[in-house]
Amino acid sequence: MAVDLELAPKLKRPKGDACCEPVAYPEIDRVRAQRLAAVAKALGDPVRVQLVDVLRKHAGKVCVCELVPLFDLSQPTVSHHLKKLREAGIVGSERRGLWAYYYVQPDAMEELTAWLS
Amino acid sequence: MAVDLELAPKLKRPKGDACCEPVAYPEIDRVRAQRLAAVAKALGDPVRVQLVDVLRKHAGKVCVCELVPLFDLSQPTVSHHLKKLREAGIVGSERRGLWAYYYVQPDAMEELTAWLS
DNA sequence: ATATTCGATTGACAAACATCTTTTCAATTG
DNA sequence: CAATTGAAAAGATGTTTGTCAATCGAATAT
User: Fold this and answer.
1) What's the rounded Cα separation, in Å, for the pair A105 and A68?
2) Residue nearest to nucleotide D8 (CA to C1')
3) Angle between helices B46-58 and A30-42 (to 10 degrees)
4) Helix residue ranges, H only, chain A
5) How far is CA B68 from CA A22, A78, B48, B51, B76, in A?
6) What does the pLDDT look like over A26-49, one tens digit per residue?
7) How far, in whole angstroms, is CA B84 from its chain's centroid?
8) Is B97 left (phi over 0), alpha (psi -120 to 50) or beta?
9) What number is the average pLDDT over the span B13-33?
10) Which of A55, B13, B16, B50 fits a 20 to 30 Å CA distance from B117?
11) pLDDT in tens, B61-87
């Protein structure tokens, strides 16, 4: 890491020359990038960030009927956002009778957290 | 943190009752959620994750002409992704003559990293 | 000057998204 | 059983996204 590049040394290079030292790019895992992006994408909406935040702060399982009134959104819309989070593995859900409870699955965000740090 | 909820105690509540203890949600910073989501959204594409990754690994400034051939994408498309990252404050750019060099601005991702941890 | 080169911008278009309303499903209650 | 209720799914609609081909602007080279 911290491999620095020669920075723009040749302003007058001949036609076909490279502009700078070639970037060593050992096929850095497109699959990994895709996983990271998928999680980030799921968090790329303020409503979903707030949903995760609430669920995390409560550390237990929160009922959908509690989540809906926190937003100025219809119940199906909140449900839709929860589905996105579920598809990304960020939250899990559990039904108890009529109610559905959601909770955060911290492992899902672990790889992203690690990459960011 | 780690305030647990009473979990689904009343399966037979009378009509108008709440399904569970109300979630205390003291207007948890929608603005903050928006900032976090904006950064996450910018990272919500595999190409952009890889771009950031390459830039970070090189810790210096990398020329666009080096970045383009790393992807199976046209130059304008790479430019577009770089613009998204720039708009999110994740990368900065500098021109030297014909060439444009990009670098990561780590501060931009700091808030997201902190929130995730 | 004129031609070349790097990179950004524009315009176009299909795919994906966020939202709402309406509908469906499963569980509960009477 | 029939009626009710919480949550998910389906359908509709306007917006945003990712991509490319074509063009443009600035800097360089001949």
Assistant:
1) 20
2) A79
3) 110
4) 30-42, 46-58, 64-67, 75-87, 107-116
5) 12, 39, 12, 10, 9
6) 555 889 999 999 999 999 999 999
7) 11
8) left
9) 65
10) B50
11) 999 999 999 999 999 999 999 999 999
Give the residue from A97, A19, A23, A27 showing the smallest Cα distance to A64.
A97
B44 and A46 within 8 Å at the Cβ level: the answer is no
Nucleotide nearest to A84 (CA to C1'): C17
Comparing A91-95, B5-9, B19-23, the range with the smallest average pLDDT is B5-9
Asked whether the predicted pLDDT for residue A4 surpasses 80, the reply is no
Q: Which residues of B touch A116 (CB under 8 A)?
A: 109, 112-113, 116
Q: Is A63 exposed, middle or buried (0-12, 13-18, 19+ CB in 10 A)?
A: buried
> B12 by DSSP, 3-state: which?
coil
Could you tell me which chain B residue has the CA closest to the CA of A62? B5
Token readout for B15 is 């009509």
**In the structure, how far is the CA atom of residue A48 from the C1' atom of nucleotide C6, in angstroms?**
40
Residue that is written with structure tokens 């899902």 in the block: A108
